[in-house]
Every structure is written in C-alpha cells, then in structure tokens.
Amino acid sequence: MSQHSIIPRRATQRVMVGNIAIGGGAPIVVQSMTNTDTVDAAGTARQVFELAQAGSELVRITVNTAEAAAQVPHIRELLDQKGCNVPLVGDFHYNGHRLLTDFPECAQTLGGYRINPGNVGRNRKGEDQFAMMIDAACRYSKPVRIGVNWGSLDADLIVRMMDENAKSPQPKEAAAVMREALIVSALDSAQRAEKLGLPHDRIVLSCKVSEVQGLIAVYRELALRCDYPLHLGLTEAGMGSKGIVASTAALAVLLQEGIGDTIRISLTPEPGGDRTQEVIVAQEILQTMGLRSFTPMVIACPGCGRTTSTVFQELAQSIQSYLREQMPVWREQYSGAEEMTVAVMGCIVNGPGESKMANIGISLPGSNEHPAAPVYVDGQKVVTLRGDNIANEFKQIVNDYVARNYARRETGRPHSKTIPIHVIN
C-alpha cells in the first residue's frame, strides 16, 4: 500500500503565479518549457496544452521578438478555449525590457516573468533594462523569477570577484568563486528588485548549473541566505538516461534536505521525441520520494530466467500507459486515485506477495508455470484470469476499483495529493 514519508521543508515566502502557489508550504510545483517558435501561436498553444495535460502546472514560453510578444495573448486565448488555465511564464533575455514596454497586452497576459540578470543590465542607450522589467512586473502585479545561469553570468561581476579573490591572503578555487558569484548575482538582483518596488512575496530565485555537485553546493548555500522560494533544475541536463540520471541525482539530494519549491527537468528531447517526458520525470522524482502523488504507481519485477515470457513486460507497459492516460479523467472525477498502487508481477516467487501489498495486483505465470493469473485486491485474491484478454480484463478491474474506492468530486480540479508538510523555521 502507498505510504508517504515526511520530509521537513525549508520555510519560504509564498509566491502566487496565476492560481499556482510556490513555496510557503505549498506542494512542490512541476513546471516545463515549450520548444516551439512562439510566433506559431497554434503550435505553441498545442504544446502548452500537451504539457499541462501531462501534469505541468506552469509552462514557460520564449518571448524573444516583437512577433512572439504579439502572439502571447492569442496563445492564452487558444488555451482558454480548451479550458486549460495553466499559467504562462514569459522567458525574457536581452530585449525583454523593450518587449514588456511595447506590448502591454503581453505583459498583462503572462502569469509571470523570468529575468536573467546576466544579460539584462544597462544598454548602450543608457536604459536600465532590469529596472524597466521590474517596473512592468510592478505595474501589472506579476511575480518574477530571477534566474541566474552559470552560462550567462554577469561578466563584470565575475571579473570583479575573481580579482578580489586573487588579492585575498587565502584565495579560493575558481569553481568556488563562480558558485559564490551565482549566489551574489541572484540575491543582489532580488534586493534591487525590492528597492524598485517589487514586493518580497513576488520573487522566486534560481541559480542553475549543469554539474551535479556544483548545483547541490550552490542551492545549499542559497537556501541559508534567503527565504525566497527556490526553483530547482540542472540546466542543460542532456539527453535520455544521462539527463534523467543527472537531474535526479542533483534534485533528489536537495529535495531530501527540504530545499526546492518548484522543479523543472531540462531534458534535450530525442529527435522527434515527446516534450512531455520532462514533466513525467519531474513527477516521478517527487512521487518516488514520497513528496507528491500524481498518478497510480506500477510495481513490476525486472524479469529473470523464470520470466522468459514477455507477457508480463507487455502488460506492465500497457497498464502503466493506461493509468497515465486515465489520470486526467480520474483527477476530474475522483479524489485520491493518484494514491493507488498496482503490481504487475511475472512469476510465483514474489508475485503473490507483491500483489497482495498493492491496492491491485496480478501475478502472471512464469516459465513452466500453470497458465493462470491470480488477481489480488487489497490483499485478497478475487479472481484468476486466463486467455488472451487478460490485459483488458485487468484494466476493467482497475476501473471498477477506482469507481468503488475513491470519492467522486463535485467540482473543480485540485492539486495532486501531497504529504503533510513540516516547515523548518
């Protein structure tokens, strides 16, 4: 049966991005980012909708040109027509000050802004670009994520800090100075934003690097120095298993220490790959750590010489896909279905035991075993399935269990279930 652990969380301010709360004891928020050309409003809205359907609670879109800024209200309109109210966060670099000024409807439509202080300073015209962007955030009452990235760190800041370090009686290693520069950039920018009028509770910070130990070190220190909510993510994590493993290794350590209020897994998609994979990975990190529940968990054995048949592998894959596809429907109709555990086992060694410990379990026959698949519901054997229609019959048992055991919702779509939160003061 599903059980949650209790991980103490770092105390932070709560920041609202549209209708989504970040920090202040709120569930850790999953977010993602489109890779479409924002000028293509229909294509961008389609991908935002897919990401939201997969479970992304915030979606960031690139706003890099006048043409892109002009399409933001239309993207919002297309999403609203689909009943998709996921907040959009505008990702601004270099010219964000001008776009937010020249396209007020874009500035108003977005749920929040992401500003990188490393490439938003004072330009050749003497315009204080950072101040102009903060002014827009104040004018339209929008939250801001001040997102520092070691690939675009303020050059003047790092040169100054490196020079000061070189003159120190006990100079630090260059990597340590770089980490400190990331933290200083984020905190100094946040303090300046507040002096410019942005309320303390409209600021989220991030300091992203692409190396696991560096990310852990930076966020541990940053968490000690402020009470802003923190956005976690290993930048440029990479493709496939490398990106998943590296992101998980870094974020799991920080999350276990109570650090992190919203996360994004920055995976490079395979050619033609599905962008929603980064959402699924983020959810699975949080769910396997017992921090949130998003979709029923499938327990399946890895297979061995006893399980030479591929039937259980195919069934496990089919059931896992089915549960994820059904979850948006169940989330609308029932309360708590995301807590369910389903076991799909491949032989009699651990099959019956694991099946009994799950809400619903099936133990398929292994090599040379009797061709029958006992099904267990809440620890009790209820039926034995045989024949070629086992997958569909088992799915129907799952559907019946959800309808019978989880309360029907009256209205609204809630957050996914989260564990009890103990905040560290």
Record the SSE blueprint.
Blueprint: E1 9-10, E2 15-17, E3 20-22, E4 29-33, H1 41-54, E5 58-62, H2 66-81, E6 88-92, H3 96-102, H4 104-109, E7 112-115, H5 129-139, E8 144-149, H6 155-167, H7 174-195, E9 203-208, H8 212-225, E10 231-232, E11 238-239, H9 240-256, E12 262-263, E13 267-268, H10 277-288, E14 297-300, H11 311-333, E15 334-335, E16 341-345, H12 351-357, E17 360-363, E18 373-377, E19 380-385, H13 390-405, E20 407-408, E21 423-424
Parallel strand pairs: 1-21, 4-5, 4-12, 5-6, 6-7, 7-8, 8-9, 10-12, 11-13, 14-16, 16-17
Antiparallel strand pairs: 2-3, 15-20, 17-18, 18-19
Helix pairs in contact: 1-2, 3-5, 6-7, 7-8, 8-9, 9-10
What does this structure look like?
This protein is α/β, with parallel strands linked by helices and 425 residues long. It has helices at residues 41-54, 66-81, 96-102, 104-109, 129-139, 155-167, 174-195, 212-225, 240-256, 277-288, 311-333, 351-357, 390-405; strands at 9-10, 15-17, 20-22, 29-33, 58-62, 88-92, 112-115, 144-149, 203-208, 231-232, 238-239, 262-263, 267-268, 297-300, 334-335, 341-345, 360-363, 373-377, 380-385, 407-408, 423-424. A hairpin with a 2-residue loop joins strand 2 and strand 3 (20-22). Converts 2C-methyl-D-erythritol 2,4-cyclodiphosphate (ME-2,4cPP) into 1-hydroxy-2-methyl-2-(E)-butenyl 4-diphosphate. Its EC number is 1.17.7.3. This is 4-hydroxy-3-methylbut-2-en-1-yl diphosphate synthase (flavodoxin). [4Fe-4S] cluster binds at residues 301, 304, 347, 354.
